[in-house]
Amino acid sequence: MVKGLHLLTVKQVESVKPGTTLSDGGGLTLRCGARGNTRWVLRYRPGPKMNQREMGLGSFPATTLAQARKKAAAARDMVAAGLDPIEEAQQAAEAAKAEAQAAQAEEMTFGRYADEIFLPTVLPNFSNAAHIQQWEATFRKHAASLRALPLAKVTRDDVLAVLRPIWTTKSVTATRSRERLERLFSHATQNGYFHADNPAAWRQFDATLPAPRKLTRGHHASIPHDEISPFIAELRTRQAESTAALMLEWIALSACRTGEARFGTWAELDLNRMVWTIPAERMKMRRDHVVPITERMAVILEEAKRRHGRDVAPEDWLFPGPRKGKPLSEMAAIMQLKRMNYGQYTVHGLRATFKGWAATCTEFARELIEEQLAHQLGAVERAYMRVSAVERRRPMMEAWASHLDGQDVTTGAKNVVTMRR
């Protein structure tokens, strides 16, 4: 035994008192805190002219006296060899982590990475439920052939096999699928799961596939506000056999977005106050949006409740689809327009129809109109809207309901205009 080492006995270590420090020699000490938490510490100098450092060797009694001495001896040997034990331990930990990541990456399939790592980081950024469904469809449906492959071994040819069958027939779907795949592989590269060139980057295909069409987005075609009441009248004749027709009138009455109506549940309704609160996660502006329920909207709710055939539960959809437990599809309202020969217009355009009517045919304040549409308001307008904003909007939305019903809001006279098809 080297002189000045191994000064402690097991009994001394076991009977250490709070607030004391025991030395075993050679820089090894046992420190017992005021609350009795005890740990081994080794003090050493990495070099002659370097500051003293302290290295934790574990807590007691998890680390025994004999184990602490063994760790301390190994650390002293490193110092004697010109190494810093702390830095060596950090490097060993990083190497072990890298090795574990490499092993994990080798086992990780494309499908697992998409479902468990990539999509959970991307999807919370979207408020539009349709966008979420489209992203999920890319990785579960369009890229189905990749799901069982080891992520680290996916090649450019594997991705090409996904894109080629739909590149010219479904150009928008194919273009967006490639962009989403490229993002996934970029994400995997930055997180240590993929180490080759991005197999979904456009440079991998620009000499193989035709250049993708540019995805342009214009205004949503809207029914003119002076021609909306005949549309609503015809829509109501379809509602006895179509839940989509019922939802489409709800969208028109509330000036909401399609996804806000499709994924609406009975829990979001307060029928005492007659308001519908759309939660922030479904809103584009990421804040709760409260919509006044008009008399006609209340009638639609009664009909929707009757169609359930039972007492509705809070989690039930307002407008359930034909598949049990599922809401109506995104295409349901669009197809309803087409069946009525209104296919040149869009569902989203009903919001523009409302805004055109409110801005040109009424004296309602601009901030009320924008708040109903859940648009971002300026600071002054937000301050104006803080108090009782819903009740300020209710007369406007009842007037809008009357307009949809074919009534002139100033005289109460019928104002139905026959549209030319």
Q: What do you see in this structure?
A:
The chain is 46% helix and 8% strand. The protein is α+β, with helices and mostly antiparallel strands. The chain folds into three domains: 93 residues, Integrase, DNA-binding domain (Double Stranded RNA Binding Domain), CATH 3.30.160; 95 residues, Orthogonal Bundle (DNA polymerase, domain 1), CATH 1.10.150.130; 180 residues, hpI Integrase, Chain A (Orthogonal Bundle), CATH 1.10.443.10. The protein has a four-stranded antiparallel beta sheet with strand order 1-2-3-4. The protein has a three-stranded antiparallel beta sheet with strand order 5-6-7. The longest helix is centred in the N-terminal third of the chain and has 23 residues. The chain is elongated. The C terminus is likely disordered.
List keywords for this structure.
alpha+beta; Double Stranded RNA Binding Domain; DNA polymerase, domain 1; hpI Integrase, Chain A; 4-stranded antiparallel β-sheet; 3-stranded antiparallel β-sheet; 16 helices; 8% strand
Question: What is the fold's blueprint, element by element?
Answer:
Blueprint: H1 10-14, E1 21-25, E2 28-32, E3 38-44, E4 53-60, H2 65-80, H3 85-107, H4 110-122, H5 129-142, H6 156-163, H7 171-190, H8 228-238, H9 243-254, H10 258-262, E5 269-270, E6 275-278, E7 289-292, H11 295-308, H12 331-339, H13 349-361, H14 366-372, H15 379-385, H16 389-404
Antiparallel strand pairs: 1-2, 2-3, 3-4, 5-6, 6-7
Helix pairs in contact: 4-5, 5-7, 8-9, 9-11, 14-16
